[in-house]
Design a protein that fits this description.
The protein has about 220 residues and is mostly helical. It has helices at about 1-40, 45-55, 60-65, 90-105, 105-110, 110-115, 120-130, 140-150, 190-200, 205-210; strands spanning about 185, 220-225. It has a two-stranded antiparallel sheet with strand order 1-2. The protein is globular, with a radius of gyration of 19 Å.
């Protein structure tokens, strides 16, 4: 019973910390997202929601050291981290590069003329269908964040805009059926921090998910991601 209460307390603490991190992220970067929306037509809610999902609300290693909030691959000159991810002088430049990626690929570029800057739902689905992420629930996760933090309020909707019933909610439940856990099998030379970077998370989160007492890993060990 004591262990259950302890785990419950830890879970509530982590949930509260995540909520706080999300709120701070929005406050810090909403103006940059709105500027990109006004310049390019990509909804500010999509920029923020995707960045929050992929960077762990700015807490991932590549976000902290490289200002990379989208997992974009490329060169970097950082002396603090060895990574195959691209480095940016600012998060604003990373936002701009994310939009450049969308514009430069045909499967995404059509979204710019097909959907308005406040049709965040179809933008999320369009990016998903275009093969942006391997995660089949990517759009649902992004839509979940958009609705959790009411990011659609930054999309500069017309004064006479009428929201369709249920449009401001994700498609069905965030996970419509019991989700199978994703696992990673430790390979020779793997480190916990390296695996965390590969899956855009943190070593602390992996330790909590897998109830690890140390960061020491064994070859063949199965980790829940």
């Amino acid at each position: 019973m004591r262990r259950i209460l302890t785990l419950l307390f830890i879970g509530l603490t982590l949930s509260a910390a995540a909520q706080t991190a999300g709120t701070k992220y929005v406050e810090k970067y909403r103006d940059a997202a709105i500027k990109q929306m006004n310049d390019t037509g990509v909804p500010a809610s999509i920029i923020l929601g995707a960045a929050m999902h992929e960077s762990g609300c700015g807490t991932s290693k590549i976000a902290r050291y490289l200002n990379n909030h989208f997992g974009i691959k490329g060169r970097n000159s950082s002396k603090k981290i060895r990574s195959s991810y691209k480095g940016y002088e600012s998060v604003e430049l990373c936002y701009a590069d994310f939009i450049t990626v969308l514009k430069s690929h045909r499967q995404f570029s059509k979204l710019f003329t097909k959907y308005s800057h406040y049709d965040y739902r179809n933008w999320a689905l369009g990016i998903q269908r275009g093969g942006y992420a391997a995660d089949k629930l990517w759009s649902r996760r992004v839509l979940g964040l958009i609705n959790k933090y009411h990011l659609y309020q930054y999309d500069n909707r017309p004064a006479d805009y009428v929201e369709l019933a249920g449009y401001d909610k994700p498609i069905g439940p965030l996970v419509s059926r019991k989700k199978k856990a994703n696992y990673y099998h430790v390979k020779k030379g793997d480190t916990l921090s390296g695996i965390a970077e590969k899956f855009n998370t943190t070593a602390k989160v992996l330790r909590h998910k897998n109830h690890l007492k140390t960061t020491h890993l064994q070859r063949g060990q199965k980790l829940k991601i």
